[in-house]
Write a structure and sequence with these properties.
Structural class: alpha/beta
Strand content: 15-25%
Number of helices: 4
Number of strands: 5
Radius of gyration: 17 Å
Largest sheet: 5 strands, mixed
Distance between the termini: 20 Å
Order of helices and strands: HEEHEHEHE
């Protein structure tokens, strides 16, 4: 018998972990996940966009528009920053980060400072806005590479039915 041929690539696997992490987000509009991987293809951090530890999801606004303090923006921690902060306690120098959305300028600062040297993203839907232009400028100047994930699959399904295992 030959080995299975339809297994997923490392990029598909780690982006899948990022997308699965995004499912933990309570944000009703945007769910983003991130996964940090070392040079041995071991996951060393994961995160999603959400409130900081100790802040109850029911006590803060989830609005996208309105007065700043009545929106989610001053309170939410982005997936990339959460993945960095949630890492397993190791130096992230030389690691890669997989993220559902191209990182904003603030997350880019944390990515660079942490020593991550590659960003792999799924969507760049805000490309062209100043926040993401700034992110690209910083990544380029710091020598951090970035690329859109190249997946051969368009989706993957998970089952929690024990008979499917």
């Amino acid at each position: 018998m030959k080995k299975r041929q339809d297994y997923i690539s490392w990029d598909e696997y780690f982006m899948g972990v990022a997308l699965l992490s995004a499912r933990r987000s309570k944000d009703p509009n945007t769910q983003v996940g991130a996964c940090i991987v070392n040079n041995k293809n071991k996951i060393v951090g994961a995160g999603y966009n959400g409130l900081p530890i100790g802040c109850d999801d029911d006590d803060f606004p989830w609005e996208k528009e309105g007065e700043f303090l009545n929106t989610k923006y001053p309170y939410i921690c982005h997936a990339e920053l959460n993945a960095i902060l949630n890492n397993i306690g190791m130096d992230l120098k030389g690691c890669k980060i997989y993220t559902a959305l191209f990182p904003c300028n603030e997350c880019t600062k944390a990515i660079i400072q942490s020593g991550i040297n590659e960003v792999i993203y799924l969507s760049d839907k805000y490309e062209g806005t100043d926040i993401f232009k700034a992110a690209r400028i910083m990544l380029d100047k710091a020598g951090v590479t970035y690329r859109k994930v190249q997946a051969k699959i368009s989706s993957i399904s998970l089952s929690f039915n024990e008979r499917d295992v």
